[in-house]
């Protein structure tokens, strides 16, 4: 059984964190009308994009470094506990259908393992050892990028993941919502999006969680743009794994080419549903094997492949 003294150091640490600060002006919030609470919460959320905007230079630098590693065969790996870990897993899980990445290319690690996605795993976030074990289990290399995510910036699991990755020569990014955080200090690229105290004291699934989601959206999306996973603002690497995505595939080809439905169907059949290849066939005037060869030579960048087709 622990005594109050056992928790004193951590309580003192939490007292210094902006994300844990108490807001006396909201002490009576539970007595307000529901609409008033909703307006207050919405007003709070509206401040998050501005906080992210202040960190755009750091975010852009981290993205360029990540894309360079991934372009050489590296992976993007998120590591966090609780809400932060869940957001990382969410972002990673959306990359295969959106950008046709292999599930092993973008990974989300959460303290306590997959069951922690829906059930809190006591003590998992306090273990740097778990982070090292999780990274070792996926065979971390110096080509990989590890993004430690922690609203407080003090979570041992996230810091342990970044420190271990950096020691192995991997690229490291530390995403937190407090200034001068241990996580940002441990990483090569520190991103501190300071959103201020939460509506509910210490409930970092709110503004801090929203900020983390916005930054992770940028990290994965812009990295994929840099890797040639899009053509303009079209998701030309979309994986058509269900009816909605099959319809979207055809719409993307139509938007990119202006071709009629029959031409689109013929092109997609010849490429086994690969949108990027179908666009190259229709715009570049090449056959399916040539389209595949040109895209391979261009490392999947459709604009470069189209230029090569024009010169062909």
Classify the secondary structure makeup into a structural class: alpha/beta
Please indicate the percent range of residues in DSSP E strands (runs of 2 or more). Answer: 5-15%
Please give the radius of gyration in angstroms.
23 Å
Tell me the series of helices and strands, N- to C-terminal: HHHHEHHEHEHEHEHHHHHH
The portion of residues assigned to helices is 40-55%
In the predicted model, the low-confidence regions spanning at least 5 consecutive residues are none
**How many DSSP helices?**
15
**Overall pLDDT:** 92
What distance lies between the first and last C-alpha atoms, to the nearest angstrom? 75 Å
Largest sheet: 5 strands, parallel
Q: Give, in spatial order, the strands making up the sheet with the most strands.
A: 2-1-3-4-5
What oligomeric assembly is this protein in? single chain
How many strand units?
Answer: 5
């Amino acid at each position: 059984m622990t005594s109050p003294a056992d928790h004193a150091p951590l309580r003192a640490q939490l007292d210094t964190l902006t994300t844990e600060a108490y807001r006396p002006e909201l002490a009576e919030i539970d007595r307000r009308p529901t609409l008033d609470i909703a307006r207050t919460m919405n007003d709070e959320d509206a401040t998050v994009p501005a906080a992210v905007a202040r960190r755009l230079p750091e975010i852009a630098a981290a993205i360029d470094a990540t894309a360079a590693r991934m372009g050489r065969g590296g992976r993007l790996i998120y590591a966090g506990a609780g809400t932060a870990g869940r957001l990382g897993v969410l972002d990673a899980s959306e990359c295969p259908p959106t950008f046709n990445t292999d599930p092993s290319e973008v990974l989300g690690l959460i303290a306590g393992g997959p069951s922690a996605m829906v059930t809190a795993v006591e003590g998992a976030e306090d273990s740097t050892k778990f982070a090292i074990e999780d990274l070792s289990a996926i065979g971390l290399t110096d080509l990989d990028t590890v993004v430690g995510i922690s609203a407080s910036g003090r979570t041992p699991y996230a810091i342990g993941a970044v420190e271990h990755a950096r020691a192995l020569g991997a690229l490291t990014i530390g995403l937190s919502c407090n200034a001068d955080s241990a996580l940002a200090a441990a990483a090569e690229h520190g991103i501190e999006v300071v959103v201020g105290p939460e509506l509910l004291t210490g409930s970092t699934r709110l503004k801090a969680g929203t900020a983390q989601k916005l930054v992770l959206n940028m990290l994965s999306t812009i990295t994929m743009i840099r890797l040639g996973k899009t053509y303009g603002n079209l998701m030309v690497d979309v994986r058509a794994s269900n009816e909605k995505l099959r319809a979207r595939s055809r719409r993307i080809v139509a938007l990119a080419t202006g071709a009629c439905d029959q031409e689109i169907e013929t092109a997609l059949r010849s490429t086994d549903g690969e949108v990027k290849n179908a666009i190259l066939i229709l715009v570049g005037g090449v056959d399916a094997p040539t389209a595949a060869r040109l895209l391979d030579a261009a490392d999947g960048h459709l604009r470069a492949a189209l230029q090569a087709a024009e010169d062909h």
